[in-house]
Amino acid sequence: MQTGLLILGVVVLLSGLVWAAQGSGHFPYPASSFMVDNSRWIYIGLATAAAGAVAIVAALKL
Predict the structure, then answer these.
(1) pTM as predicted
(2) What are the distances in angstroms from CA 3 to CA 40, 42, 51, 56?
């Protein structure tokens, strides 16, 4: 269970960081994405990344 939670946490953290970068325009791929330069996705991405970080910490404490 610890390994699964750790892997899930890393995937969620990385996904959140990509979403935040797309929302801020720092990672504009694909160019036609509705997420690019949309500030809503910065906040959604940061919240998702934070959830991933919590999962990673929880996995490491098991």
Answers:
(1) 0.91
(2) 32, 28, 17, 10
